[in-house]
């Protein structure tokens, strides 16, 4: 017991000692010296055992547990720091420790840094904290509970690099479940930055400016997180993606199923955050959506956020941000609910600055269970702005951008069903007054091609085609358009592994119907397309397209070219293009065994061709063969050109392209025939091409045209080298550094030769453009030294009538320079003054040297000029060589060192003086201190324009003395020009214009402002004044001009008209104001004529010009009854307007009216070809654009018209032309050959003309076939003709001109003068071709002859010798006939003869005056008749010369008469007088005869003196309805003898096509009066 007490006593002492030691140690720890000792021991231990360095600046421990460590460092080296901190301070409550709880009253870490690096995984981590503070009120280790009032982090920076080593694998086993429960009152974070590198996707960088987490409750046991509020301000996240450069490391991770965390947040708010995702390689200035997504100003407000695994719910109150592409999302709100059995996004509203969308989405499953069988429903409604659409089209062009910029589209849709079986209940998109697209249908099994099925119906309607016009047209040029009310319906059906499409397109005219199907398993397809009167012109209104009717059938199997079998049949039934209807065009094609074969056939008169083709493909080459026969391609008939142009040819083409890049072509065009104004057989065209790896050969032959090319290198190589030469040449020209050696380094070795004569395609083509030649030779390439050379020779070159005998051009390389030359020889009778013109020089670097010389002719050397042109940046200068210098046959003296320099933005600088006697040309400039031109003086005196016109014969024939006195100044970027130009005694052709004077004051300011003051004087009288300002800036292009015309002589304008057309007299007076934009100015003013006259020289009639004003108001010209006044004082008035609001589309809407207008009043003279009088009524309208004018009207030739036309050189005059029976032509004479091969150049006229020409029946037309009027044609008649001229230049004349009376008087050798009277009913009819009418004219002459029968008894018989003209003018048929209507016996004899026999009798009667029918004896009085003809002609010529306005003819006839007293000669003298009175209303005819041996028993001379008299009075204007009073004496028959008839009657004559028409009564047709009786505006015909 005692032992126990001692043991207990000592034990208690030991415990007290130990406790005291502990207490002592604890007390000692508060002693600074002990603290330093402990710090030293700790540093020594770490250094010796851990191979690391530990350094602590100071340790301060305060009672009870308030520890502060300053300047702590843990690491291996100074650069390898594991831990560093300025201050770590911890204050722990001691009393709570006794309760097994920890209370950290204060934990502060300042300026701490942690660096961790794993050498195995290459993981690196650096953490830097500026300040961390927190407080723990309660930390119960046994209950695993913690209550933290606040945590504050300020200034954090975290850098991590995952490295590329193997990842560490957690091998620790599972422990006891963690039941910790944390409650945090508030977490504040300020300025924290986090970077993560080493990710496969790239680099991750995130951070936040300010963050607040409030009311945090984390339960690790139940895996729950609850937060009252999360706020993030100025946060950012950057994801810079890198391209994968190797195989990614794969880590096998076995995921164990665990209970998902549950997170609840009361409020989430993000303010002014940003997000960036882009590839690392893309710089900022090259960022483009969607490759780069840059979101800024991101703000978000959410309430009631819940998340557990795949379940989520939230209420998004507002989401807004701005994307780098321009998208401005101003508001997005919705309610999101992702549950285990349902997914729902409801009331989603999205708003941008221009768009607004509403959407609802519902799925009957959770996200994890979402599958093909999940029922879903999606609805969407709203408006989408085109500006927002453009944000997702970064590569759109300006055309799409401009179109979408102001568009708003409506969107509406509803989709129901399952993912694998969707029903599109409604899908609509459209725009107001634009278009609408509606769709509905269903689709199932979209992921299974074997089971896929569905139907889709689409309906697209264009309400207004102009809505799409800016999208479809470029540069305001209307190309393809969509017509108004266009409808497109499409039905798509998918079933049984087959897709079928049924489409109908209706543009408002016709229909396009297409049906197609495709079976993807069998790879079979079929398509059928039908066009029925489909209006292509609705889509392309400016392309001359019309309607199309056609069909297309296509079918096939397989998609691999090697195994594909297909067939296509295309039939074109009708296609209207450019006014032509293409019909019966068939294309058949088939593909089988890797060979495509087909045939194209066209059965149109103007497009007649047949072609077969074959395209084959094997493993080594492509092979093409085309064979065809083009029978006819009529370009005029197809309306491609107004001139006659057609061709035909046969073709055979074989081409091959091999795998080794070699190729060959053989194209043969045979029997090429070109038809224009003549038929040109151009022969054959053969083209042979061979492309080898190291050589390219080309050979072309066409008629007498041959082209050969040979180049070293393959075709691709040659093309590349020639392209490089072209690029370098352009660069040298831009830099003014021409270097032939550098060009030659790139130029391949080649040679091109060309030789051609007259009969070839090239010459034929050029002729249609007014150019032709006799012979051409060209040789261009590189020579043996690889230097470039060119030689060309052209003989007989004719350019628009300017003929050159020969033209030689050469060029040759000489080091860096290119030497060139040209020699021109003028043709005889053309350019004789330029008999030999040469030009030679060289081009080197920025220098161009040239000398132009016309070698001496009979009058001397025309000109000889040498010049040097130096090219500089934005400037060039020209200097003229002083010796020799000849201009216009005159030798000039010029100063040495002369120059003219032109530079953009400066006035010209010059020092040029040319002198020749009193003639001079001076251009002198002065410079300022900066060596810039400050002034320029232009002084020209006494230059004879006639000398230059004579020297340069291609210039107009002008003459006069030119003088110029101009001064130009430049100061402070202002250029002033003032002075005068005069031409004394100016002549244009043979017309004297007068003394012309031009005064000018001009100022250019700021390079864009132009002040102009211009005046024109004629004979020292002001004629034209212009004053104002023009702006030529990029934005400012306004103009304001005042134009005054005080007195402009019309004769000045008349002098420039073609000679022989008109003479103008009087003056023009007016004033105009021009204001507005230069491209569309606004014009106002008026114009009038004083004493104005127009003399039409061809008809010799002078018309007065109306003196009333022509008004122009806002670009609208109003004629206001302006017109011409005829000699009979009647007016031709022009009414209407010309609208030139747009100068590119000037519109005219006018009419011309005239009544009884005397279009001609000319007395007989020797100057004009036409004389007489012509009266017309005219009514016409002119409408449309000036370049496509439509003219409709009527022109009536009135009864009181009498026109005489004189053939100055009649082709019908009989003259001795034996000298030209044989004509020898030298084929070396190019002028003669050109005349023989002259082609008429026909220019297209954009004029649609339709005129009705009505000729009154009493209009008289007289054609004098000889100058003395002895041979003449005088006709009366009328008719209705229609003349048309279409825009392609085709003219047509339709109608009939019926002759009521007339006479053809013609003097024939031997026969004498004959008068053939045109029989009533003759006509000339046109059916289209103006130059080829149909003629049906019968003219007769009365001839009296004595007929003696077998009994030797004779009697006087009156014959009608007739000439009949029939058939068309091109195939004219002329026959003669004879009739004796007054003698039955002779008439029966003539009737029994053949037409050929009667023709011979008619010739005998006209030549010999005899009749030799059966039972008669022919006796000739040719000698007497010859004398009678002479006397008769003289008398008739005297009467026509001295008896005007009346017709008096004489006849003398001598014949044999046999009676009981015997045979005797008898001569009859006859006369006929006719006269029209009272404006052709009354016609008087008087005739008679006197015989030399009148039988006194017959009544004597006085009885037969007037034996034929008739008086006719015409009712109205119809000459076929008249009253006739007559007395006629004539031989009736053998029994009756001579009979006298006297009477009165009413005559009505009508023409009928058929006999039965006499008994048919025509129905009256009611014609509604129209302003334009000819034109049907609606039909356009």
Automatic annotation (TrEMBL):
Major subcellular location class: membrane
UniProt-listed InterPro entries: TamB_C (IPR007452)
Residues spanning the signal sequence: none
Compartment annotation: Membrane
Gene Ontology cellular-component terms listed: plasma membrane
Membrane-spanning parts: 12-31
Gene Ontology terms: biological process: protein secretion
Record's bilayer topology term: Single-pass membrane protein
Pfam families reported in the protein's UniProt record: TamB
Keyword Membrane: yes
UniProt KW keywords: Membrane, Transmembrane, Transmembrane helix
Domain Translocation and assembly module TamB C-terminal: 1127-1540
Protein name, as recorded: Translocation and assembly module TamB C-terminal domain-containing protein
Source organism: Butyricimonas faecalis
């Amino acid at each position: 017991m005692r032992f126990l007490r001692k043991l207990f006593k000592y034990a208690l002492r030991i415990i007290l000692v130990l406790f005291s030691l502990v207490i002592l140690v604890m007390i000692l720890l508060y002693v600074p010296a002990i603290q330093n000792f402990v710090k030293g021991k700790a540093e020594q231990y770490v250094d010796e055992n851990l191979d690391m360095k530990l350094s602590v600046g100071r340790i301060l421990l305060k009672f009870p547990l308030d520890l502060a460590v300053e300047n702590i460092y843990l690491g291996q080296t100074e650069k390898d720091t594991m831990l560093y901190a300025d201050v770590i301070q911890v204050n722990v409550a001691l009393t709570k420790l006794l309760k097994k709880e920890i209370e950290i009253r204060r934990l502060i870490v300042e300026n701490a840094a942690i660096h961790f690096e794993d050498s195995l995984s290459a993981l690196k981590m650096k953490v830097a904290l500026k300040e961390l503070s927190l407080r723990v009120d309660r930390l119960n280790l046994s209950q695993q509970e913690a209550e933290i009032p606040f945590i504050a982090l300020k200034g954090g920076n975290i850098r991590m690099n995952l490295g590329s080593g193997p990842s560490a694998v957690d091998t620790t086993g599972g422990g006891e479940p963690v039941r910790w429960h944390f409650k945090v009152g508030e977490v504040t974070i300020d300025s924290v930055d986090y970077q993560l590198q080493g990710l496969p996707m790239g680099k991750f960088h995130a951070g936040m400016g300010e963050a607040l987490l409030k009311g945090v409750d984390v339960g690790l046991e139940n895996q729950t997180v609850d937060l009252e509020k999360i706020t993030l301000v100025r946060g950012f996240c950057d994801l810079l993606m890198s391209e994968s450069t190797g195989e990614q490391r794969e880590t096998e991770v076995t995921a164990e199923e665990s209970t998902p965390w549950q997170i609840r947040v009361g409020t989430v708010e993000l303010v002014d955050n940003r997000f960036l995702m882009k590839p690392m390689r893309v710089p900022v200035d090259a960022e483009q959506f969607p490759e780069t997504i840059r979101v800024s100003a991101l703000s978000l407000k959410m309430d009631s956020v819940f998340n557990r695994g795949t379940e989520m719910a939230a209420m998004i109150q507002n989401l807004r941000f701005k994307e780098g592409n321009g998208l401005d999302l101003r508001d997005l709100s919705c309610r999101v609910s992702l549950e285990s059995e349902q997914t729902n996004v409801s009331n989603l509203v999205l708003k941008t600055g221009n768009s607004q969308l509403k959407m609802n989405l519902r799925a009957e499953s959770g996200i994890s269970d979402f599958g093909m069988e999940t029922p879903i429903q999606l609805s969407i409604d709203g408006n989408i702005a085109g500006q927002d659409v453009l944000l997702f089209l970064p590569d759109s062009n300006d055309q799409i951008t401009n179109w979408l910029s102001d568009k708003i589209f409506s969107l509406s849709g509803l989709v129901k069903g399952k993912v694998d079986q969707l029903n599109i209940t409604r899908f609509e998109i459209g725009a107001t007054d634009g278009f609408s697209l509606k769709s509905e249908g269903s689709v199932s099994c979209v992921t299974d091609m074997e089971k896929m099925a569905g139907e889709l119906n689409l309906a697209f309607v264009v309400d207004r085609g102009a809505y799409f016009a800016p999208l479809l047209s470029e540069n305001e040029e209307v190309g393809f358009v969509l017509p108004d009310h266009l409808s497109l319906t499409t039905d798509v059906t998918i079933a049984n592994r087959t897709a079928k499409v049924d489409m109908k397109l209706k543009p408002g005219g016709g229909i396009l119907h297409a049906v197609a199907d495709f079976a993807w398993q069998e790879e079979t397809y079929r398509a059928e397309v039908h066009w029925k009167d489909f209006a292509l012109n609705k889509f392309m209104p400016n392309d001359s397209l019309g309607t199309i009717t056609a069909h297309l059938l296509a079918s096939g199997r397989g998609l691999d070219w090697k195994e594909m079998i297909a067939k296509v049949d295309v039939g074109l039934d009708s296609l209207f293009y450019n006014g032509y209807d293409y019909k019966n065009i068939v294309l058949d094609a088939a593909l089988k065994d890797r060979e495509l074969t087909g045939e194209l056939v066209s059965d149109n008169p103007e497009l007649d061709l047949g072609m077969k083709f074959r395209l084959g493909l094997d493993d080594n080459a492509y092979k093409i063969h085309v064979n065809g026969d083009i029978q006819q391609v009529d370009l005029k008939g197809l309306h491609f050109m107004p001139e006659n142009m057609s061709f035909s040819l046969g073709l055979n083409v074989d081409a091959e392209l091999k795998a080794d890049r070699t190729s060959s072509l053989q194209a043969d065009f045979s029997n090429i025939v070109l038809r224009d104004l003549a038929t040109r057989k151009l022969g054959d065209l053969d083209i042979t091409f061979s492309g080898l790896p190291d050589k390219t050969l080309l050979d072309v032959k066409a008629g007498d045209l041959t082209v050969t090319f040979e180049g070293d290198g393959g075709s691709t190589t040659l093309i590349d080298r020639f392209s490089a030469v072209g690029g370098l040449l352009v660069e040298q020209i831009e830099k003014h550094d021409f270097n032939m050696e550098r060009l030659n380094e790139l130029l391949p070795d080649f040679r091109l030769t060309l030789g051609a004569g007259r009969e070839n395609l090239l010459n034929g083509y050029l002729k249609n453009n007014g150019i032709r030649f006799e012979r051409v030779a060209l040789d261009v390439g590189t020579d043996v030294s690889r230097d470039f050379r060119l030689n060309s020779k052209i003989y007989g070159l004719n350019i628009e009538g300017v003929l050159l005998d020969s033209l030689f051009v050469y060029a040759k390389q000489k080091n860096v320079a290119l030497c060139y030359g040209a020699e021109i020889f003028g043709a005889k009778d053309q350019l004789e003054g330029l008999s030999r013109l040469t030009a030679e020089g060289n081009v080197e670097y920025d220098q161009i040297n040239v000398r132009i010389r016309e070698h001496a002719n009979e009058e001397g050397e025309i000109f000889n000029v040498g010049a040097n042109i130096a090219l500089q940046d934005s400037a060039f200068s020209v200097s003229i060589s002083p010796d020799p210098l000849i201009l216009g046959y005159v030798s000039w003296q010029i100063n040495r060192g002369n120059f003219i320099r032109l530079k953009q933005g400066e006035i010209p600088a010059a020092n040029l003086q040319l002198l020749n006697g009193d003639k001079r040309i001076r251009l002198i400039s002065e410079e300022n201190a900066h060596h810039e031109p400050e002034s320029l003086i232009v002084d020209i005196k006494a230059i004879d324009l006639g000398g230059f016109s004579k020297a340069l014969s291609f210039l107009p024939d002008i003459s006069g003395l030119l003088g110029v006195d101009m001064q130009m100044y430049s100061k402070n970027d202002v250029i002033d020009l003032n002075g005068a130009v005069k031409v004394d005694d100016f002549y244009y052709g043979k017309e004297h214009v007068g003394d012309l004077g031009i005064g000018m004051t001009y100022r250019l300011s700021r390079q864009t402002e132009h002040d102009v003051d211009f005046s024109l004087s004629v004979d020292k009288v002001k004629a034209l004044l212009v004053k104002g300002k023009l702006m030529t800036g990029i934005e400012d292009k306004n103009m304001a001009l005042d134009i005054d015309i005080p007195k402009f002589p019309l004769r000045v304008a008349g002098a420039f008209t073609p000679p022989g057309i008109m003479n103008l007299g009087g003056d023009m007076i007016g004033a105009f104001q021009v204001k507005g934009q230069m491209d569309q100015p606004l014009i106002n003013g008026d114009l009038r004529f004083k004493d104005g006259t127009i003399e039409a020289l061809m008809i010799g009639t002078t018309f007065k010009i109306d003196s009333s004003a022509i008004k122009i108001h806002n670009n609208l010209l109003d004629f206001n009854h302006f017109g011409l006044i005829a000699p009979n004082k009647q007016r031709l008035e022009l009414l209407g307007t010309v609208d030139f609001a747009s100068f590119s589309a000037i519109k005219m809407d006018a009419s011309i009216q005239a009544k009884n207008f005397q279009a001609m009043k000319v007395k007989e003279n020797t100057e004009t070809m036409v004389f007489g009088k012509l009266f017309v009524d005219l009514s016409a309208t002119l409408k449309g654009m000036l370049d496509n004018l439509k003219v409709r009207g009527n022109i009536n030739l009135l009864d009181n018209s009498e026109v005489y036309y004189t053939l100055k050189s009649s082709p019908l005059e009989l003259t001795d032309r034996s000298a030209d029976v044989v004509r020898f032509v030298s084929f070396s004479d190019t002028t003669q050959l050109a005349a023989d091969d002259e082609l008429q150049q026909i220019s297209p006229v954009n004029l649609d003309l339709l005129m009705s020409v009505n000729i009154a029946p009493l209009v008289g037309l007289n054609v004098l076939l000889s100058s003395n009027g002895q041979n003449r044609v005088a006709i009366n008649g009328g008719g209705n003709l229609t003349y048309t001229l279409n825009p392609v230049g085709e003219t047509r004349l339709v109608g009939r001109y019926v002759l009521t009376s007339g006479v053809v008087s013609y003097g024939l050798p031997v026969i004498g003068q004959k008068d053939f009277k045109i029989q009533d009913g003759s006509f000339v009819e046109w059916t289209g071709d103006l130059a080829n009418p149909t003629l049906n004219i019968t003219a007769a002459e009365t001839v009296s002859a004595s007929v003696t029968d077998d009994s030797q008894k004779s009697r006087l018989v009156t014959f009608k010798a007739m000439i009949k003209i029939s058939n068309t003018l091109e195939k004219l048929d002329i026959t003669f006939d004879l009739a004796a209507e007054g003698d039955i016996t002779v008439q029966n004899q003539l009737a029994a003869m053949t037409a050929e026999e009667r023709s011979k009798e008619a010739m005998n009667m006209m030549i010999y005056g005899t009749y030799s029918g059966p039972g008669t004896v022919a006796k000739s009085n040719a000698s007497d008749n010859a004398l009678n003809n002479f006397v008769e002609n003289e008398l008739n010529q005297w009467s026509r010369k001295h008896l005007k306005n009346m017709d008096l003819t004489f006849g003398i006839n001598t014949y044999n008469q046999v009676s009981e007293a015997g045979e005797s000669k008898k001569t009859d003298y006859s006369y006929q007088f006719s006269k029209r009175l009272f404006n052709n209303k009354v016609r008087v005819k008087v005739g008679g005869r006197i015989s030399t041996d009148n039988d006194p028993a017959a009544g004597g001379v006085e009885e037969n003196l007037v034996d034929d008299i008739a008086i006719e009075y015409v009712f109205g204007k119809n000459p076929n309805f008249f009253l006739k009073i007559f007395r006629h004496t004539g031989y009736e028959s053998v029994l009756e003898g001579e009979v006298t008839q006297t009477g009165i009657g009413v005559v009505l004559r009508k023409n009928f096509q058929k006999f039965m028409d006499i008994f048919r009564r025509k129905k009256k047709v009611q014609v509604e009066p129209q302003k334009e009786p000819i034109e049907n505006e609606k039909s356009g015909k």
